[in-house]
């Protein structure tokens, strides 16, 4: 018997035993129930032992998977990418319509772990409250921003948007430390288990290592453990879990039900509709912008990459070379082309493939009319893969803390078979394993996906770890994610009075952010000056740059030569908001410095696990950052500035 046949036989035995047990319970036959219970446990144990053995040797596909799949290649798209794809989706009667509001407006949700997810919840509910969320065309996310973006995009009907995003409270004086008044919408200790921010109460470094160990005991391959842990702790409570069988996901994801049925399943009839999570489209629900998750692709791999990856590399380089990787409900891949830059001279990039075939072996012949046929990948590319890979910087923390106890933790970095859309089907461009990493390792604001698409109006939520301050030389210090966009390395303190703390990117050719410049350096100082002035006057750190000229950036596939409007919203203390909090709330925060000393700039690692009050305070602040109609020191209100982007 083949491996597939053995697995399917054992799985069928589990199903049969479960059916027999259910029938015995229904019949009320105690003896039959006891016998069926023993049979079910025996069948399940046999199946689990079999798949655990396989997970240590050969990856296997989910039960009942078709032998082959028909996929599409989507060659390197430019800013009209989604227009072109949408035209195809709406070409037939009954197709989805109105899914890409015009003119294009983009919302960027930066990385930052639980801090970013909490801020994103506040931003999303503010835009919904203002009636603007349905006018947002794209959401681009990195890391913790994706922890919010993925559940929001795919949330099932069982969870309402009110529950998912939480209550809008624009008057901070109404907030209460507990629910003594019985008004739960104001109580900081009240957080729905289905609110996006609730995920921050379930995750933590300890929680992740415990989940990783449990999943490994259940047969999950080492290089997939991080992503599956994200699936269990973050996505499963929202009804978006992997539904593991044979230690691999049994669920795909796609765009709308129409896209799933008329593009994906039309050429793959063996795939079932119920095997896909699709974007929330139900009547009465707020429109979901088109989701883009951003990760980093490495070749050569970094020096601390797992030994298995280093062994497959044609070239070892202590300085990793990063490439941008995107995954959306429709496509996954590296958009720009990089000829002969991959393993053994393979090409990289050139566009996208359908997510449901990502990780497959390469076609042996060039695609015909952008279609190809390949054996079904062993594991289904799941929502946990896009949310997990984009946030996998925490793997480094697990390695540092636990590799002496669990040596296999060294192998947790997500790894996938990859082949290029550029020149696919040629002898050299076969699939080979590559290392993937957190999107924030390369670029943490999530703005590049918007600039590549030519989105003219962008709201950038910078969920910064670093609050702004002025150093001893009078230099405004900002978070590391912002300077590289303008051609500067992150702030570095200098003993030389002639240095302003920000060196050109060119001064460090090995920096992982060396490819990130997209704006003129001359625009950087006015930006941080205006952000500082807004914050130091007691208001939100918000500033709108208009007519910001975009520079060409080949690494990210950005053509350049056009201008954009960007509303920068920087995570920073807001004294005018904080001062309105009730005395008890401020008192409780003051006497608990372990949790609140750095509010709202919770630490990305040491404060990964947040409680309900930490989440709610940050989310309420970010709702205020978007929707407050208060003008401070003559500056336009936050609401006015946000409305000006639509």
Automatic annotation (TrEMBL):
Entries under Pfam families matching the protein: Patatin
GO terms for MF: phospholipase A2 activity
Domain PNPLA: from-to ranges: 107-210
InterPro entries with a match to the protein in the record: Acyl_Trfase/lysoPLipase (IPR016035), PNPLA_dom (IPR002641)
GO annotation terms (biological process): glycerophospholipid catabolic process
CC per GO annotation: cytosol
Keyword Lipid metabolism belongs to the record: yes
Keywords recorded for this protein, A-Z: Lipid metabolism
Protein's UniProt keywords contain Lipid metabolism: yes
Name recorded for this polypeptide: PNPLA domain-containing protein
């Amino acid at each position: 018997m083949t491996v597939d046949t053995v697995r399917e036989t054992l799985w069928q035995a589990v199903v049969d035993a479960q059916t027999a047990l259910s029938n015995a319970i229904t019949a009320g036959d105690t003896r039959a129930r006891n016998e069926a219970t023993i049979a079910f446990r025996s069948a399940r144990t046999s199946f689990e032992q079999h798949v655990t053995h396989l997970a240590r040797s050969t990856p296997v596909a989910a039960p009942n998977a078709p032998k082959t799949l028909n996929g599409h290649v989507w060659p390197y798209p430019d800013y009209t990418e989604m227009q072109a794809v949408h035209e195809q989706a709406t070409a037939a009667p009954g197709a989805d319509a109105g899914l890409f509001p015009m003119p294009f407006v983009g919302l960027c949700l930066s990385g930052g772990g639980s801090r970013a997810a909490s801020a994103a919840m506040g931003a999303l509910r503010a835009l919904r409250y203002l009636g603007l969320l349905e006018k947002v065309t794209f959401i681009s996310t990195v890391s913790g921003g994706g922890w919010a973006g993925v559940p929001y995009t795919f949330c099932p009907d069982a969870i309402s948007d009110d529950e998912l995003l939480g209550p809008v409270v624009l008057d901070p004086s109404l907030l209460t430390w507990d629910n003594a008044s019985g008004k739960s919408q104001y109580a900081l200790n009240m957080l729905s288990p289905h609110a996006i921010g609730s995920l921050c109460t379930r995750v933590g470094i300890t929680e992740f290592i415990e989940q990783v160990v449990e999943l490994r005991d259940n047969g999950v391959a080492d290089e997939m453990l991080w992503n599956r842990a994200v699936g269990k702790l973050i996505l499963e409570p929202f009804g978006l879990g992997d539904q593991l069988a044979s230690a691999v996901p049994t669920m795909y994801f796609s765009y709308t039900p129409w896209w799933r049925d008329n593009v994906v399943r039309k050429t793959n009839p063996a795939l079932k509709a119920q095997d896909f999570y699709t974007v929330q489209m139900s009547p009465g629900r707020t429109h979901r912008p088109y989701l883009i998750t951003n990760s980093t692709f490495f070749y050569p791999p970094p020096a601390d990459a797992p030994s298995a990856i280093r062994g497959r590399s044609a070239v070892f380089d202590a300085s990793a070379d990063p490439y941008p990787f995107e995954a959306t409900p429709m496509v996954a891949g590296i958009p720009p082309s990089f000829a002969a830059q991959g393993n053994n001279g393979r090409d990289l990039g050139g566009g996208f493939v359908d997510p449901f075939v990502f990780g497959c072996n390469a076609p042996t012949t060039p695609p015909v009319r952008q279609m190809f046929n390949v054996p079904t990948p062993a594991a289904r590319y799941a929502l946990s893969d896009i949310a997990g890979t984009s946030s996998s910087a925490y793997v480094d923390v697990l390695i540092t803390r636990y590799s002496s106890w669990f040596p296999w933790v060294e192998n947790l970095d997500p790894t996938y078979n990859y082949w290029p859309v550029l020149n696919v089907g040629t002898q050299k461009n076969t699939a080979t394993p590559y290392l993937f990493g957190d999107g924030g390792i390369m670029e943490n604001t999530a703005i590049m996906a918007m600039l590549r698409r030519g989105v003219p109006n962008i709201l950038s939520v910078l969920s910064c770890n670093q609050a702004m301050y002025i150093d001893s030389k009078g230099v405004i210090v900002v978070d590391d994610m912002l300077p590289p966009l303008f051609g500067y390395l992150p702030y570095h303190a200098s003993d030389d009075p002639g240095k302003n703390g920000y060196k050109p990117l060119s001064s460090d050719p090995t920096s992982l952010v060396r490819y990130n410049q997209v704006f003129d350096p001359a625009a950087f100082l006015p930006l941080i000056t205006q952000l500082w002035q807004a914050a130091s006057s007691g208001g939100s750190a918000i500033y709108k740059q208009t007519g910001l000229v975009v520079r060409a950036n080949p690494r990210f596939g950005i053509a350049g030569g056009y201008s954009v409007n960007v509303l920068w919203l920087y995570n920073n203390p807001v004294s005018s908001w904080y001062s309105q909090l009730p005395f008890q709330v401020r008192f409780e925060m003051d006497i608990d410095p372990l949790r609140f000393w750095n509010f709202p700039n919770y630490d990305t690692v040491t404060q990964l696990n947040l409680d309900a009050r930490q989440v709610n305070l940050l989310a309420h602040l970010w709702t205020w950052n978007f929707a407050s109609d208060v003008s401070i020191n003559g500056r336009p209100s936050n609401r006015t500035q946000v409305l000006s982007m639509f």
